[in-house]
Write a structure and sequence with these properties.
Blueprint: H1 2-38, E1 41-43, H2 45-55, H3 57-77, E2 83-92, H4 98-120, H5 125-128, E3 147-160, H6 164-230, H7 236-271, E4 279-281, H8 294-304, H9 306-327, E5 332-342, E6 350-358, H10 366-432, H11 438-473
Parallel strand pairs: 1-4
Antiparallel strand pairs: 2-3, 3-5, 5-6
Length: 475
């Protein structure tokens, strides 16, 4: 019996232990899962651009302008179609309207003549000829009601508008092109802003890493200088110099880390997401020589820039507005069909169909001056077009030259970094051999840190300059 109890107890302990082990693994697994879920997602430059395109409020406004322009085009196109207008009304009078009273008197007079002619005709054949199918007949008296209803239905189809409808449609289409060009320009500007913010984060990350490495190296140097000082190999001043430089580097590191937080928030703002969102950015800062020459860049810009399409659309809108102004001095011809049923003024319904033409003959010079104003607007738009083309060429040239300078900066920074590494190696060997003070080594370490920073900054500025040139070209 005793062995049986011990065996059962051992089995229970094993079951409990197994359950605890499974529970522990589940908890650990859940913890790892939560930790992994909370880790920042990897973000590429293309993904950042896509997010910005989806969330940009400015882009949504510009898209709304495109939709509005499309609606205006449809409004202009509706001018070609016939228009059907219904007018209805109700009128209550305090007394019988004058027209009805007059019509009543005339009807009573008519009926009186018919009655007299009928009676007199029995004795006089000439009088009897006044009544009947070929003469006077009895008529019904008008309605004496004080409430009157009526309606008027008019169908109108324009036939000739002096080129106004055609001009309005072309103007609306040009306005649609203008809105689309503005949307394209907004997209290009947004892409550039995302790239600039993205590269700024990458540069700041490299800066933090460089300063962190410099802090670690300087901390090791402080320990080394302190050990040499205790051994009597260097003066206490060397240790103090290293400690002061370490404190300075720590301060710069803190500023760089704060700058990184601000850069991340700026990127999030550009993408239109929460400022606190965290991402692990893929380092896409690289050096790829730009092969296109300046002349080709300017030609492509004049062919691709949305600003060129936008100003062309404005010129076209101004030209069509001139045509609209001229059309005011030309006749307007329309086909019109009309049905009237108004009482008491028109007790019998009427149907009309015809061609209506209208034209201003004298307007005090209003149309003439409107045409002159429209002509001046066309001249202004054409001048603005030339100014836009010049500005685009200048924009391309500035971006191109900035890219060339950035390229040269990379080459200089690369060579400077190699020299700084060699200088630090020589200073380190000299210091450890007791042939120089720590000041020379500190200067060499600072020089290397600055050289690394300059190289990273040069790469980032090159990529930003390349993005600026691509935007200037209209890519």
């Amino acid at each position: 019996m005793g062995k049986k109890v011990v065996r059962t107890h051992a089995k229970g302990i094993f079951v409990i232990f197994t359950a605890l082990l499974v529970l522990s693994m589940t908890i650990l697994g859940s913890s790892n899962f939560v930790s992994a879920a909370n880790e920042p997602q990897v973000l590429t430059l293309d993904q950042a651009v896509k997010i910005a395109m989806e969330n940009s409020l400015q882009r949504q406004i510009t898209q709304g302008d495109v939709a509005i322009a499309q609606d205006k085009l449809k409004q202009a196109q509706s001018g070609y179609w016939p228009k059907l207008t219904l007018e209805a009304g109700y009128t209550h009078y305090n007394e019988v309207p004058t027209s009805v009273a007059l019509a009543t008197n005339i009807a009573e007079l008519n009926n009186g003549l018919v009655k007299w002619a009928t009676a007199a005709g029995a004795y006089d054949p000439y009088v009897s000829g006044l009544v009947g199918s070929n003469g006077l007949t009895y008529v019904a008296l008008p309605d004496q009601s004080l409430n009157y209803y009526g309606w008027d239905l008019v169908l109108q189809q324009p036939l000739y508008t002096g080129n106004k409808l055609t001009a309005l449609n072309k103007q609306a289409k040009a306005n649609q092109g203008y809105a689309k060009a503005n949307l394209s320009a907004a997209d290009q500007n947004l892409v550039f802003e995302v790239k600039k913010a993205y590269y700024t984060v990458i540069f700041t990350q490299h800066l933090v890493e460089t300063l962190q490495q410099a802090v670690d190296d300087m901390a090791n140097h402080v320990k080394e200088a302190d050990a040499y000082c205790r051994a009597g190999m260097v003066a206490k001043l060397d240790v103090k110099r290293a400690e002061v430089k370490l404190a300075d580097l720590k301060q710069k590191l803190l500023m760089a880390q704060n700058g990184l937080e601000l850069a991340n928030m700026a990127l999030n703002f550009t993408m239109g997401i929460s400022l606190e969102t965290k991402y692990n950015l893929v380092d896409s800062v690289k050096y790829e020589p730009f092969q296109m020459d300046l002349s080709t860049c300017q030609e492509k810009a004049l062919a691709n820039r949305p600003e060129v399409a936008a100003i062309q659309a404005k010129v076209e809108m101004a030209k069509q507005n001139l045509e609209v102004a001229k059309s005011a001095g030309r006749p307007l011809v329309a086909l019109q069909a009309k049905h009237e049923d108004f009482t008491p003024y028109n007790p019998d319904p009427e149907n009309q169909i015809g061609i209506v033409a209208t034209m201003k003959l004298i307007d005090g010079g209003q149309i003439h001056n409107q045409v002159k104003e429209a002509e001046e607007v066309v001249k202004q738009a054409q001048t603005a077009q030339e100014l836009t083309n010049r500005a685009i060429k200048l924009d391309v040239e500035q971006a191109y030259r900035n890219l060339q300078v950035a390229l040269q900066t990379i080459q200089v920074a690369d060579k400077s970094m190699d020299q700084a590494e060699e200088t630090l190696h020589m200073a380190d060997v000299s210091y450890k051999a007791g042939l120089s003070s720590s000041l020379e080594r500190i200067d060499a370490e600072v020089g290397l840190t600055q050289a690394k920073t300059n190289y990273t900054q040069a790469l980032s500025m090159y990529n930003i300059a390349l993005a600026q040139l691509q935007k200037a070209i209209g890519q």
